[in-house]
Specification:
2 domains; alpha+beta; 169 residues; disordered N terminus; Nuclear Transport Factor 2, Chain: A
């Protein structure tokens, strides 16, 4: 069986401007694999890294690392909050109202293209001593920013009936 000249020469990896003696050879004479561009980190890696930070009790670190400067965030059908600065203050205010975290876990993570869905289960006691259990979906749109993916839109969707309060133990 003969191999097409284009494959024998390695042009399937070669840049368009490659010379006929492509691929280059290592000092030992073996062909050297040349990739045209560095491969970006796949989006699932970024999404799972965000989840890991939140589950470790570091939601503000996750926000700083993974959210774009022009991020738009929205709770259910409430008006969206635009920009990283405004959303940072909203996130800080939320975290400041939490006295104890009992559970902060992603029960499901789905990634498709530049979209992610995370089902969060949150169980915490607020500053007033009220224990709350929260089951919500975070619908995210991500954008690549020079090899680093960032959330550009996030909408939290939940049934307010799942936000149950009970007296703290």
């Amino acid at each position: 069986m003969s191999v097409p000249a284009s494959l024998a020469r390695g042009s399937w990896l070669a840049p368009a401007s490659a010379s006929p003696d492509f691929p280059p050879r290592a000092p030992c004479g073996a062909p050297t694999l040349v990739l045209p561009e560095p491969h970006p980190v796949p989006l699932p890696f970024h999404v799972h890294a965000l989840v890991a930070l939140v589950e470790q009790g570091r939601p503000l670190d996750a926000f700083e690392r993974f959210y774009a400067d022009d991020v738009v965030m929205q709770e259910n059908l409430a008006p969206p909050t635009v920009g990283k600065g405004a959303n940072r203050e909203r996130e800080r205010a939320f975290v400041a109202r939490i006295r104890d975290v009992h559970e902060s876990r992603a029960r499901l993570v789905l990634v498709d293209g530049d979209h992610a869905v995370i089902r969060w289960l949150l169980d915490f006691t607020d500053a007033d001593g009220v224990r709350l259990r929260f089951d919500q979906l975070a619908l995210q749109t991500w954008r690549d920013e020079g090899g680093e993916s960032r959330v550009v839109h996030e909408r939290f969707v939940y049934d307010p009936a799942t936000l149950t309060a009970r007296a703290a133990a």
